[in-house]
Design a protein that fits this description.
- By secondary structure, this protein is α+β, with helices and mostly antiparallel strands.
- It folds into four domains: 203 residues, Histidine kinase-like ATPase, C-terminal domain (Heat Shock Protein 90, 2-Layer Sandwich); 136 residues, Ribosomal Protein S5, domain 2 (2-Layer Sandwich), CATH 3.30.230.80; 81 residues, Rossmann fold (3-Layer(aba) Sandwich), CATH 3.40.50; 103 residues, Four Helix Bundle (Hemerythrin (Met), subunit A) (Up-down Bundle), CATH 1.20.120.790.
- Helices cover 32% and strands 20% of the residues.
- An eight-stranded mixed β-sheet has the order 5-4-3-6-2-1-7-8, with helices on one face. A five-stranded mixed β-sheet has the order 9-10-13-11-12, with helices on both faces.
- Helix 10 packs across helix 14.
- The relative contact order is 0.06.
- Keywords: ATP-binding, Chaperone, Nucleotide-binding.
- It comes from Cryptomonas curvata.
- This is Histidine kinase/HSP90-like ATPase domain-containing protein.
- Belongs to the heat shock protein 90 family.
């Protein structure tokens, strides 16, 4: 029974119990019948095998499948160079070895040779380290270094190493068909220089370079990429600068790029001065002078690494404008860090103007409002999971060592760590908005004008923070002719005995003020909020209550706190009997397509009648919105696709003269015209 399942290939280490073969499941019973102990037989027959890999195929996967875009190769290689410099700095401090070299990274493109060289004055590598670190795929020398420092109890808090997967080096093959590494190790007593070379196949070569001056300092590495024809764009120093600025702007060590600079000088124009007469001023011409030199690229400092008390408002503003390419001034800033099981630092900015990209689409996926860094190296700015969409307008930076990334460091994997970071960002944003609200003034009003709709989306979509966000939203109100009011402001002005927060949906303030539903609070003098946008109505429907007070729509047929009074029900029944013929006449005249029913309302005062909705019905404004949305998303010519209309309830005022006149005509047998 064992022979057909002899361990081999991919299943070499698998336990036999995992197979689903019927023959295998019945094997133990058959063996016992023959007097054989199946447990002993299994143990004797089990062999252990190491997984094998086809190196060239693995390299192909790393090069062509691990990264979504070629640009990231420079991020990975610069990060490796930064790690090498950090290791050298750390070893110099902890092991007492002198450090005479200036730690920096240099990048130079050679258009004639079609090579891109990345050089660092870091720790370098010995021959053995070249074999182990570059010859073994997915072995991270940086990770091993950090673990060794931890094992020595040296306290590696002062070293900030980036690498962790051991595959970043091979990203160079995204753009190169050959990689050459020339290196001299910091800990190599022989002081020899070696050259490592590979063409992305299954092999590499290592050569000792005698009397070589390729590495000028005590140690370091020079990485030479022989670029492919389709990657010659990386020979342009402007392209290299843009990538360094995007991915490695906040790396600890100076990054210098060999750049061309054009200046213009005035020189004598020999051609124009041939016929120059005596006493005339020589004519000049402007000629371009092209010079090349090392240009420092990463001049910006990671401001989020400083304590908030050490950062001035001017520095926040400068950082905001530089990092997010913004021209406006941030209204407020939140600068904080979280320590514990999850550690990260963050800076959040509220713009003073609506970002341009959100003008046409308030949830534009290309707005890239939140930038994620891992150990000060830029990873991505399009992580939807890092921040809910109702905070799309908030600009921010998150720098963490704990966020779970895929091996290509481009995709943020869902985990408990991510949920912690997301909740903290949400909480800090709400606190930031609340602080802005407490200060009031023009900044708060500007914030509401630009981003108030985002807060209402937050009420609709954020179940965990709904009440906290609800304290920040504003609505036009009958209490103020021009200014809006927050819900807590409404609650503070409520009349004695008032139990609910009342609102009316409508297309604009004027329509709300003219609504017959306003009659329902005329005697009591209750304040009414005006929901003038479809989003307003969705917001109050989701919020339901605030500080223990129900939000009640005055346009409903039964209004809590007004129509549910005990003596009102009795009076309503009496009025219904008196106007029974009028109600029947109106129902027949209008039909069920226009009104679902006709009833008496004792809460109407100046209006003869009004349209109301059932307790679970939508206002006419919301129905229009839903129909328009359905048309925009589907076939407007297909009536079956459109949401069905919802007939309203016609409420009549039994005391109004028009209703009384209609009653007299109906009872007299007239048609009411």
């Amino acid at each position: 029974y064992m022979q057909p399942f002899k361990p081999a290939g991919l299943f070499g280490g698998a336990r036999l119990a995992k197979f689903s073969s019927p023959m295998l499941r019945t094997a133990p019973l058959a063996l016992r019948r023959k007097g054989v102990n199946p447990a002993k037989m299994t143990a004797a027959a089990t062999e252990k095998f190491e997984f094998q890999a086809e190196v060239s195929r693995v390299m192909d996967i790393i090069i062509n499948s691990l990264y979504s875009e070629k640009d990231v190769f420079l991020r990975e290689l610069v990060s490796n160079a930064a790690d090498a410099c950090d290791k050298k700095r750390f070893l110099s401090l902890t092991e007492g070895k002198g450090q005479e070299d200036t730690l920096e990274i240099r990048i130079k493109a050679d258009k004639e040779a079609k090579t891109l060289t990345i050089e660092d004055v870091g720790v370098g590598m010995s021959k053995e380290e070249l074999v182990n670190n570059l010859g073994k795929i997915a072995q991270s020398g940086t990770k091993q270094f950090a673990e060794a420092m931890k094992a020595k109890e040296s306290g590696n808090n002062d070293v900030n190493l980036i690498g962790q997967f051991g595959v970043g080096f091979y990203s160079g093959f995204l753009v190169a068909d050959k990689i050459t590494v020339i290196t001299k190790g910091f800990n190599d007593a022989s002081g020899k220089t070696y050259k490592w070379e590979s063409e992305a196949g299954s092999s590499f070569t290592i050569t000792e370079l005698e009397n070589s001056d390729e590495i000028k300092g005590a140690s370091g590495s020079k990485l030479i990429l022989s670029l492919r024809e389709d990657a010659e764009e990386y020979l342009d120093d402007f392209k290299i600068k843009s990538l360094v600025s995007r991915y490695s702007e906040f790396v600890n060590f100076p990054i210098r790029i060999w750049s061309s600079k054009t200046t213009y000088e005035q020189v004598p124009d020999e051609e124009a001065n041939k016929d120059l007469k005596e006493g005339e001023e020589p004519k000049k011409k402007t000629v371009p002078i092209i010079t090349q030199d090392w240009e420092l690229q990463n001049t910006q400092k990671p401001l989020w690494m400083r304590p908030p008390s050490k950062v001035t408002p001017e520095q926040y503003e400068e950082f905001y404008k530089s990092t997010f390419k913004a021209w406006d001034k941030p209204v407020t800033v939140s600068h904080f860090s979280l320590e514990g099981q999850v550690e990260f630092r963050a800076m959040l900015f509220v713009p003073s103007q609506l970002p341009f990209e959100l003008g046409a689409n308030m949830f534009d996926e290309n707005s890239k409002n939140m930038r994620l860094y891992v150990k000060r190296v830029f990873i991505n700015d399009n992580f939807q999971e890092l921040c809910p969409r109702w905070l799309k307008f908030v600009k921010g930076i998150v720098d963490s060592e704990d966020l779970p990334l895929n091996v290509g460091r481009e995709i943020l994997q869902k985990s408990a760590v991510l949920r912690v970071v997301r909740r903290r960002i949400e909480k800090k944003c709400i606190d930031m908005f609340a602080d802005l609200k407490s200060k009031g003034g023009d900044d708060w009003q500007t914030f509401q004008k630009n981003f108030g709709k985002y807060l209402k989306v937050g009420v609709v979509e954020d179940n965990d923070n709904r009440q906290d966000i609800g304290a920040l939203i504003q609505f036009p109100t009958s209490a103020f002719p021009k200014n809006a009011s927050t819900l807590d402001g409404y609650v503070s002005r409520m009349k004695a005995g008032q139990e609910c927060i009342y609102f009316i949906p409508g297309e604009g303030r004027a329509q709300c003020e003219m609504s017959p539903a306003m009659d329902k609070v005329k005697d009591s003098g209750y304040e009414v909020l005006f929901c003038t946008e479809p989003l307003d109505e969705l917001c109050v429907m989701e919020l339901k209550n605030f500080q223990g007070k129900d939000l009640v729509d005055l346009t409903k047929d039964e209004v809590k706190g007004i129509d549910d009074v005990a003596d009102q029900k009795t009076k309503k029944e009496e009025a219904k009997q008196v106007l029974e013929k009028v109600l029947s006449f109106l129902q027949a005249a209008l039909g069920s397509e226009l009104v679902s029913k006709v009833e008496v309302s004792l809460s109407l005062r100046d209006s003869p009648a009004g349209l109301a909705q059932g307790q679970y019905g939508m206002s006419p404004q919301m129905q229009k919105y839903m129909k328009a949305r359905a048309v925009s998303m589907g076939d407007s010519n297909d009536p079956d696709f459109l949401p069905p209309g919802m007939p309203s309830i016609l409420q009549v005022n039994p005391e109004h003269p028009i209703v009384q006149s209609l009653k007299a005509q109906v009872e007299a047998g007239q048609d009411g015209e």
